[in-house]
Fold:
Amino acid sequence: MGTLINVAAIIIASLLGVIFKRGLPEKIQKSVMMVLGLGLIALSLGWFFKDFLVIDGSSISTRHDLLIIISLVLGVIIGEWIDIDLRLNRWAEGIEKKYNLPPLAKGFITATLIFCVGAMAIVGSIQDGLYGDITTLVIKSALDFVTAIILASILGIGVIFSAISVLIYQGGLTLLASSAQSFLTQDMIISLSMVGNILLIAIGINFMEIKKIKVANMLPAIFIPIFYFLIISWFA
Structure:
């Protein structure tokens, strides 16, 4: 149910954003994207450190340091080898030509990455599957509603197609969690969230045009912790 609410929020907001696009000057569009990127970096850093730092009395330690680095390195190697970014762009551009649609590749890919790779998407979907708790996904839906309006007003109708990605990704995580409650551990969920938040920081950097990062090619990094903890459990 939480994912369906999220999908509906993105669709409605995208349509509103396309309507607003007509009266939004290019100068304002660039400024909005810049501050959206800045905000995304700030929020993602906060979410990351909430999981990364462990406070025990007067001492502060970190967790899963090496796992995060390994996940990012292996993930980007796999992603670059497959070239996920190129394949997503070709797929979106193919739909544009086939159905004579306006340019949608950038909006679709950008929105898909923002809505799918963050901690709220991962943790919220798992909470929904494990406990039937949709609170996190409802809060995410409200945030995505505002973000989708902004993105669609700047990047166009392609943003609306990210709702399909959210349905598949979050719905899949929810189904996985509901059928594998003993499989998902707290450490696994935390590490997935941390890697996802690092990818959100990379998206924020793209928005601010500091450096062009192919975030789509980093997506496999999110799933590396699952294999790590599975291997550890087999030898435990």
Notes: Residues 2-235 form one domain.
